[in-house]
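[User]
If only I could read backbone structure tokens as easily as an amino acid sequence. I have put the entry right below:
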Amino acid sequence: MWGCEGTLGEDEDKCACALPLTAPLGGNRMSIMEIVRDEKAGALDVVERMAAANNWPFERAGEDEIALHVTGRWTNYQISFTWMSDIEALHLACAFDMKVPELRLAEVQALVALINEQLWIGHFDVWMQNGVVMFRHALVLAGGVVASDRQCEALFGSALDSCERYFPAFQFVIWAGKSAREAMDSAMFETSGEA
């Protein structure tokens, strides 16, 4: 049976089962806080290098976030990568410049449900407070996994591909007044027609 003879809190050093807040790394010892900072910085640094290599405007919006601006085929995308230390994940949110009018909100939500059924990774949301359509996905890096260039590129690529593929369907619903099913059928036809 697991137990502890000491108490935690002020007397942490008296606890016989308390684990040290250090972990071995290649013979050196690094504190857990340093490891978390390295993972966060590492994942965001990978994204920053990717943005710089593609000449995409970006800014570090904070210690845990980097924002990019990317021009797609249909519209401009605002992409935010956020390190979420509580779940050890790199979260991506990709919004496009399209607000959903209240009168079309129910039909857009129906379209989001139809689109999400087609997606293997990531999903679309409509943020109710501002009517913005957004694609979201996360790269889980639990247990000290370090984000690679390829993983970040795949995360970004899946978001951009999904946004580019379904942007016209959102336009059909919002601006052309089409139903979610009509817009989805049209988007799927156009997608399969490109070769």
DSSP finds four helices and eight strands in the chain. The domain at 18-193 is CATH 3.30.1460.10 (Yope Regulator; Chain: A,). The CA atoms of residues 22 and 30 lie 5 Å apart.
